[in-house]
Specification:
single chain, 323 residues
């Protein structure tokens, strides 16, 4: 058992490193975080609604770009190795297909969660930056905007010094600088005075970001299932279609479930993303109860378990190319 756990951890770690070392992953992640960071500058003059618009758009960017990265991560680490023949090489060793598939999914899921961490931090800081009326809070905004620049600069300097991987270092340092920016903004009020930590941060964004992260884990599982048969582009397209159908499932299938057996089956099988997209619940002084987050997490775990079960069954029947 210990040997199996070590194999699982090794494959998952290698998969994670492989994903975050892809230039596409860094570029998409950095673009999403920079776009979220610039939202207060782009839509500041909105008659006092800037914070709400920044928050809602930040969560939407988190969801949309997380879908792209989750699908890309699953396809890169699974479909890519299957096509190149490296999967067959690994499985020729004493490594089971189930362990290989689950470890690959774990690596992709960890990469998706790291992106979610960065997007969540950026949304929290960007909303704080836009809390002023026709003004920007640069005490929070300046560290936020500086984080990607510092990360790329430091990553380039380290790459020049020791020829280490630039992409993964820049991505990880970006998360570190975003966390540092949050700590700084937590202790400084909009006038630049010291305050109790987090007094001017909208912590109610955190459960909304966690729910989106749960949805992205499910989408990564779906992408892993599809990656056993499809390449990256078809996987991304089908995941996007599933996202759209799931967001409209109440309208498309829920209203017909009592009159149509097919609509009822589709309604219960289709993931209902409305359980995870609760930006509207934050309108005004609204909050998302933590017990709701717990129930949504239970729903997500069982749904993800079913998806991974189908993925295991599909991967066991996948013909692997020998490189």
């Amino acid at each position: 058992m210990r040997w199996r756990l070590r194999q699982f951890a090794a494959i998952a770690r290698i998969s994670l490193l492989e994903i975050i070392r892809q230039p596409v992953f860094l570029l998409v992640s950095a673009f999403a975080i920079v776009f979220i960071s610039l939202l207060p500058v782009l839509i500041n003059y909105t008659l006092g609604e800037a914070a709400r618009i920044v928050r809602d758009n930040g969560l939407a960017v988190h969801f949309a770009f997380g879908l792209v990265l989750g699908s890309y991560a699953a396809s890169t680490t699974l479909a890519g190795h299957t096509a190149l023949g490296t999967a067959a090489l690994v499985l020729s060793k004493p490594v089971g297909r189930s362990l290989f598939f689950l470890a690959k999914f774990t690596g992709a899921a960890m990469a998706t969660l790291l992106f979610s961490l960065g997007a969540g931090l950026a949304t929290l800081l960007s909303t704080r930056m836009a809390t002023g009326f026709f003004a920007l809070d640069w005490w929070a905004g300046a560290p936020l905007l500086a984080a990607p620049i510092l990360a790329f600069t430091l990553g380039g300097a380290l790459n020049f010094r020791d020829r280490g991987p630039f992409v993964s270092r820049a991505f990880l340092w970006m998360l570190v600088f975003l966390a540092g920016a949050l700590v700084w903004a937590g202790y400084v009020d909009p006038e630049g005075h010291r305050c109790a930590f987090g007094a001017h941060l909208e912590w109610r964004i955190v459960p909304a970001s966690l729910l989106i992260s749960l949805a992205l884990l499910i989408l990564t599982g779906v992408a892993s299932l599809l990656a056993t048969r499809l390449e990256t582009v078809p996987t991304l397209i089908l995941c996007s279609v599933l996202l759209l159908l799931g967001l409209m499932s109440d309208y498309l299938f829920g209203g017909q479930a009592d009159r149509s057996a097919l609509a009822a089956v589709l309604y219960y099988l289709m993931p209902n993303w409305q359980h995870f997209w609760l930006a509207d619940a934050l309108a005004g002084d609204g909050t998302i109860p933590w017990n709701y987050v717990g129930r949504a997490a239970i729903y997500g775990v069982f749904y993800l378990g079913g998806i991974l079960g189908l993925g295991l069954a599909a991967f066991r029947r996948t013909e692997l190319r020998v490189g």
